[in-house]
Amino acid sequence: MDFEGKVHYPFQQRRIKSGLTDQEIAYFSEHRDEFKGVDIVEESIRQYSKERVATQLVGYMKQLSGATSLDFYKDINKDQEDPTLKYLDTEDVGFDGLELMYQSELRGRNGLKTYPVNNQSQIIGPMELTKPVKGDNLYLTINKDVQLATQNAITEHLQQIRTSNNKQERAPNAKTGYAVAMEVKTGKVVAMASMPDYDANVWQGGISAKNYEQFQFYLSNGAIREVQAPYADEKERKKHPSSLVNLGSTQKPLTILLGLNEGLITTGSTFSDPGYFEFGREGHKTRVRNAGSAANGILTPASAIAHSSNAYMAGMVGNKLYLRDGSKGLDVWDNYMKEFGLGVKTESGLPGESKGSVNYYIESKRGSAQSALIYSSFGQQGRYTALQLAQYATTLASRGTRLKPQFVDRIEDTDGNVVQGYESEVLNKIEFPKSYWQTIESGMSQVKVQGFDDFKYSFRRKTGTSEQDVGGGRVENAVFIAYAPANDPKLAVAVVVPEGGYGGWGAAPIARKIFDAYDAAVGLTDAGPAKKAAGTPAGQ
């Protein structure tokens, strides 16, 4: 055991065994004098809920020696002279999610044993002990009941649409789903799910090659960043969309707001929708079609949202913006997108958060500024995260207040004293005339959707079926945003199901279960949690 210091300094501790049983601890404690140099010490082990509550949001830990690939840890000990704050190579540190984001608050201080030694590094006197200091405790905004209901809703619905006999609902390749529920007035995120998930306890002691291979596509949080489709074969993986998908028709309320505010349309502007819109030079025209080439007849801005008319958006907003401003119209479009949180980070602070993928500038070079604005108008030129969609939905719900999404309700020290409380944070405000907001709200209240037949609250929503070209051809992703109650919005929900088909079928029923879970746990009105009917589970 090298007590003579031939390999290690005599004062260096070496682990002989970890995970001692209660009986072993008792034995060595009782026979301490018989085992010179043997100490029993506590080690910090992070234990995660077996219920897998928001696994990817919480994140996981690694030993510092395996975490230096992150910028946060590269020079973590540089100029640090306090030995209790110096990081040890064997120390577990946050590597992703909230574990990394709040590493400094969670860590505390290391303990220290100091020994007097001679010139041969042999201990010659009694040890001085500096006790470790525990880190602070985080209390999350995540509501466990709502979170677990969200996770279950995604898992169950994915199974349903993969095997459904209903042609409109069936989506055989829907393997993943992402959802975020965010309070409209506070910015608190009460649920964030990236499914499938995994048991984060596999990181204890280091993840095995077998576990890594099994979970590699589920380790990252697809609700905030791009995560590839879960196919082991690379060629097959390229045939399927990632977690970042086009907005599809969920774009249309913002398209109408832009058109109104830029004077391209009025609240009463009509358009005869034959099921398509054509643009381009004579003989080389490109035709933009509605879903199913549906001819909707005379439409107003509100009914264009209700009927999800691509033709209206293209002809009355996208094309008009191009005819007025040419290529500069792209910058006008881009500014509106960013004001609503699309194409910029949500400012949540989560490590690795994506700002999405803006494609309209690329399309303007590949095609034209005209095609870029027309395709953008109905949601086919920007791929964004579920968290961005939730922030966008809360901004619509609040009539223009973009809030920072937050995950920590408060931070307390080990004595229960509040170190940091919660304050909502406004990122920006968008001022539009009241009639503009009323126009999109009227349209969103009329959108046809599955799963809400017996919903007791008025709510506003927009479905999206976003088309996306991948290696295997063109796929359809299910996207859905909604907020409720309509007259006093409290919760906004965004759901994304890659290859989920129609948003009304592939994503909306998941959102309904999230609203029900929130109503049961917190309450969609100021009256508090909804009361259960006798013998009826909440939300049923």
TrEMBL record:
Residue intervals of the Penicillin-binding protein dimerisation domain: 8-124
Topological type in the membrane: Single-pass membrane protein
Keyword set, alphabetical order: Cell membrane, Cell shape, Cell wall biogenesis/degradation, Membrane, Peptidoglycan synthesis, Transmembrane, Transmembrane helix
Compartmental location: Cell membrane; Membrane
Cell division keyword on record: no
Example of a GO MF term: peptidoglycan L,D-transpeptidase activity
GO terms for cellular component: plasma membrane
Domain Penicillin-binding protein transpeptidase, chain residue ranges per copy: 177-515
Tagged with keyword Zinc: no
GO biological process: cell wall organization; peptidoglycan biosynthetic process; regulation of cell shape
Superkingdom of this protein's organism: Bacteria
Major subcellular site: membrane
Annotated InterPro entries: Beta-lactam/transpept, Beta-lactam/transpept-like, PBP_dimer, PBP_dimer_sf, PCN-bd_Tpept
Pfam families given in the database record: PBP_dimer, Transpeptidase
Similarity annotation: Belongs to the transpeptidase family.
Protein name, per record: Penicillin-binding protein 2
Organism from which the protein derives: Cohnella ginsengisoli
Organism classification: Bacteria, Bacillati, Bacillota, Bacilli, Bacillales
